[in-house]
Write the structure tokens for this entry.
Amino acid sequence: MCCTCAAFLKEGLFDMEDKGLKSELQDQGYVLLCKAYPKSDLKIIANQFEAVWDQG
Ligand code: FES
């Protein structure tokens, strides 16, 4: 995973195609947009590469 699409989910629901991120990062609210399917309107903070990469 390159993680360039990493974002932080503020509101909404999504399904993730596979385990692209560590479960701890997913639990914190991070998502890989290239692997996610929205299930509602979403509010996200984009450009979270560094936050995810540093913890990955
Ligand atoms: S992980 Fe590379 S674009 Fe999403």
Observations:
- Residues 1-5, 32, 34 surround FE2/S2 (inorganic) cluster (CB under 6 Å).
- Strands lie at 6-11, 14-16, 30-32, 36-38, 43-45.
- The chain has two helices and five strands.
